[in-house]
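Reopening this ticket.

The earlier resolution said the output was attached, but the attachment link was broken on my side. Pasting everything inline this time so it's all in one place.
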Amino acid sequence: MLDDLDRALVHALHLDGRAPFSRIAGVLGVSAQTVARRYRRLRTEAGLRVVGLPDPHGAGRAQWLVRLTATARSAQDIAAALARRPDTSWVKLTSGGTEITAVIHAPAEEASPDSLLLRDIPRTGGITAVSAHLLLHTYLGGPANWRRSAQALDEEQRAALTYRGGSEAVRQPGPADAELLAALERDGRLGQGELARATGWSPDTAARRLAELRAAGALFFDVEVDAGMFGARARALLWLSVRPADLEEVALALAGHGELAFVAATTGPTNLVAQALCRDPADLHRYLTRRLGALPAIRTLETSPVLRTLKAASPSLTDLARVRRASR
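Inline output:
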């Protein structure tokens, strides 16, 4: 579990993933060396990682949430193969280890992710069912953080650490930004010199383009951290069917629930998907029966327990050894 300083550091990074340790330290009342040491420890022990991600709409990208059902013998290998792909994020083993979910990132003009999915992953006997759901609108997730991981700082501290970019109109991401975005997907806290080496630009050019993309809202920084460190031991994907006339109202209500880290509208037989992070199965049961049960517009609910997350927000996977261990 995290102590108060750990939680404050995670909250600070949610507010500005690239905030200098010296600025965070000044707000928290500790030394910059202490903040840097805590950051390194959390990277090792809590999976802490800051990643820079392009806004999918501004970058002309579509996101497909794919569900695969597989035999118990092959599911972990298939999940590991998906995690190694550069066009996937949020790869999870769910439902007793026989279902895999993943987000596939594709050009917006792609009619479906089938060619991306089936071109590289053979149709083996191990895969028994595949469905794909286009993410139409995200109500919680991306730049909006899980509330229970961002509750440590008071109002004055939040004001001092919140990132504030310019408002000028700038060029949206294009092919020339590919190396910059790829570097930030691997590590959102890379310095100007490291970004310059990754892009072939000068440090000033790399810093200026990074500032432009942030100011335009075309790039945001996400914080990956093990939710178990915040006491969330029961995790589940929720597939909900809601009357279309009530979809917006229900989705906005769910986005305000502290138990949820992600809420989005999708295509398919269910039109809302959410991720619940609860303390234990009893806490998850209370959430499903009391909070969700109080919303009469929800027609059906399917709950898929998450057994393991092999890959989180960034399509860039830096720890292949971890995926290999998870797939055993």
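Reporter confirms the inline version is readable. The first helix runs from residue 4 to 15. The beta strands are 49-54, 61-70, 88-94, 99-107, 127-140, 219-224, 234-242, 260-266, 272-278, 298-311.
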